[in-house]
Design a protein that fits this description.
single chain; 485 residues; alpha+beta; OB fold (Dihydrolipoamide Acetyltransferase, E2P); Dihydrolipoamide Transferase; Chloramphenicol Acetyltransferase; 3 domains; five-stranded antiparallel β-sheet; lipoyl; Dihydrolipoamide acetyltransferase component of pyruvate dehydrogenase complex
Length: 485
C-alpha cells in the first residue's frame, strides 16, 4: 500500500487557512484512525486535527508557526512498519510510548480499523470532505497511545536475502542525541502557544500543577525571568532592537512589527467589510437602571446561587425587542441578480467577549427560546469556551444580532462597528450614579447609556428608535416586561 497524504480540511464556516500551532506526532510514530496529529489555530478557535488514516507517520508537511492553506498537504502516512520518512523529528515534541500500546488500550492493531473508519476514509478520498474537527469518525480511537519505531535497528527481513558483494566499510555515522524520556507535561494548547511565542522550552520547565503539570503561570514566570524587569515587551511582538530599522514616512526607528494573522487578521477583514459595505446610523438613549438592579438584588437575596447576571437580563430584553422589531434581526444581501433582505426565524444572539486572542463574538443559538436563567448559563459557558480557545467555528460565526457590554471597560458609550454581515449591534455602557429627575424631583439614580448602530438599508430611524425605546423601557420597568415574557 502506498503512502497516503491527508490534506488540511475545511475546519468549518468556509475558513481558507490555519496556523500550525504544534505537532502532536513525529515522523516514525505509528498512529490510529482519528488520533489527533496536529493542533491548529484558525481565525476562530484552537482545534485538534485527527488523522483519517492509520499507519506510520512518513512526512509532516509544515512547521509550528507556519500558516497552511486549506487543501494543502498536512501529513503523509505510510503502512505500519513502512519507510520513506521525509522529515527529521523534533525532539522537543516527541513522546515515547510503550510498545504494544494498542493491545494495552484494547484497540485494534495499528494499520487496521473498523468498517466505519474505513468507510470514512473512502468518503474522504472520494472528495466529500472531512468530518468537523472534534467530532471524529465512528469508532475512532483518538485516545490511543503512540509508539515509537526504532531508528537504529532495521526491521528483520521476511525471507532469504541475497548477500551483497563486499565493499569498503562506510564511515561511521554520527550518533543522534537520545530523545527525552517523556514529553513535557503540558496539556493546554494556549500554554504551549505562549511558550512557543516567548521562546520558552517546555522540556526545561518544572510544572507546579498536579503531577508536574506545566501551567500558564509557570510559562509566565519563565518569561518574566528571561525579559528585563519593566520591559513590557509582549512575546508575540517581534522587537527590532538590533537592526535599528527606520520608518521611511516618519523617520522614526521601528520599535516592533507584529504579523497580522489568525484571529486578528479575520477581525480586521470583518471590520473593514462592515465599514465598506454597511451605511450605518446610530441612535442612543440614557436609561435609569435602578429598578433592574433592585430586582436582581432582591432575587439574589432569595436565591443566591441561581440569580442571572445583568447581561442575561439585557439579553432577554433584546430578544423580546427583536420579536417586536424583527427588521433588525435580518441581513442585507447584495447579489448579482439584485439586493434582498434575508429575515430569520429565530435569534442567535451574539455577545462580545474579550479573550487573550482578541475580541470574539460567540452566539447563543435560538436565544429566543430561553429564559433569563437559561441565557445566563449559556453565556457563561460560551464565555469560558471562547477564553479557552475551544469555541467552535459555528459558535463564533452564527449570530444574527450582537449585544456588546463595553461598560465592563469603564466607558459610557461607543459607536460600535456592526458585526458583518449582521445588521445591528446594541452597546451598553457602564452603570453609574447620576442625578436624574424622577416624578418631578431630582434624585441620584443608577444610569447607563444604550447605543444602537444599525444598517440603514434594513430599516428607518423609526424602527431603530422603537426597538431601542422598548429595551430601555424594559430596563426601567423590568417587572412588568418580564411578566409578559
Amino acid at each position: 500500500m502506498s503512502v497516503r497524504t491527508f490534506l488540511l480540511p475545511d475546519l468549518g464556516e468556509g475558513l481558507t487557512e490555519a496556523e500550525l500551532v504544534t505537532w502532536l506526532v513525529a515522523v516514525g510514530d505509528e498512529i490510529l484512525v482519528d488520533q489527533p496529529v496536529a493542533e491548529v489555530e484558525t481565525a476562530k478557535s484552537l482545534v485538534e486535527v485527527p488523522s483519517p488514516y492509520a499507519g506510520t507517520v512518513a512526512v509532516l508537511h509544515g512547521e509550528a508557526g507556519q500558516t497552511l492553506d486549506v487543501g494543502r498537504p498536512l501529513i503523509s502516512v505510510a503502512p505500519a512498519g513502512g519507510s520513506g520518512f521525509g522529515q527529521a523529528p523534533d525532539a522537543a515534541s516527541e513522546a515515547v510510548g510503550d510498545t504494544g500500546a494498542a493491545a494495552d488500550t484494547g484497540a485494534a492493531p495499528v494499520g487496521q480499523s473498523d468498517p466505519a473508519g474505513e468507510a470514512y476514509r473512502q468518503e474522504e478520498k472520494a472528495g466529500s470532505g472531512n468530518v468537523l474537527i472534534g467530532y471524529g469518525t465512528p469508532g475512532g480511537l483518538a485516545v490511543a497511545r503512540r509508539t515509537r519505531r526504532s531508528r537504529n535497528v532495521a526491521a528483520a527481513p521476511a525471507g532469504p536475502v541475497a548477500m551483497p558483494a563486499p565493499a569498503a566499510a562506510p564511515a561511521p555515522l554520527p550518533v543522534p542525541a537520545a530523545p527525552p524520556a517523556e514529553a513535557p507535561r503540558c496539556i493546554s494548547p494556549l500554554v504551549r502557544k505562549l511558550a512557543r511565542d516567548g521562546g520558552v522550552r517546555l522540556g526545561g520547565l518544572s510544572g507546579s500543577g498536579a503531577n508536574g503539570l506545566i501551567l500558564r503561570s509557570d510559562v509566565e514566570a519563565a518569561l518574566a525571568t528571561a525579559m528585563p524587569a519593566g520591559s513590557g515587551t509582549s512575546p508575540s511582538i517581534i522587537t527590532k532592537t538590533d537592526t535599528a530599522a527606520v520608518d521611511p514616512r516618519t523617520g522614526l526607528a521601528i520599535a516592533s512589527q507584529t504579523p497580522v494573522k489568525g484571529l486578528r487578521k479575520t477581525v480586521a477583514a470583518n471590520l473593514a467589510a462592515s465599514r465598506s459595505n454597511i451605511p450605518e446610523a446610530t441612535v442612543w438613549v440614557d436609561v435609569d437602571a435602578t429598578a433592574l438592579l433592585e430586582l436582581r438584588a432582591d432575587l439574589k437575596r432569595r436565591d443566591p446561587g441561581n440569580t442571572p447576571g445583568l447581561l442575561a437580563f439585557l439579553a432577554r430584553f433584546v430578544v423580546a425587542g427583536l420579536a417586536k422589531f424583527p427588521e433588525l434581526n435580518a441581513r442585507f444581501d447584495q447579489e448579482d441578480s439584485g439586493a434582498q433582505i434575508t429575515a430569520y426565524d429565530g435569534v442567535n444572539l451574539g455577545f462580545a467577549a474579550q479573550t487573550d486572542r482578541g475580541l470574539v463574538v460567540p452566539s447563543v443559538r435560538r436565544a429566543d427560546t430561553m429564559s433569563a436563567r437559561q441565557l445566563d448559563v449559556e453565556i457563561r459557558r460560551l464565555t469560558a469556551s471562547a477564553r479557552n480557545g475551544k469555541a467552535t467555528p459555528a459558535e463564533l460565526s452564527s449570530g444574527t444580532f450582537t449585544l456588546n457590554n463595553y461598560g465592563v471597560f469603564g466607558v459610557d458609550g461607543s459607536a460600535a462597528i456592526i458585526n458583518y454581515p449582521e445588521s445591528a449591534i446594541l452597546g451598553v455602557g457602564r452603570i453609574i450614579d447620576k442625578p436624574w429627575v424622577v416624578d418631578g424631583a431630582l434624585a441620584v439614580r443608577k444610569m447607563t447609556e444604550l447605543t444602537l448602530v444599525f444598517d440603514h438599508r434594513i430599516c428607518d430611524g423609526g424602527t431603530a428608535g422603537g426597538f431601542l425605546r422598548y429595551v430601555a423601557d424594559a430596563i426601567e420597568n423590568p417587572g412588568s416586561v418580564l411578566a409578559d415574557l
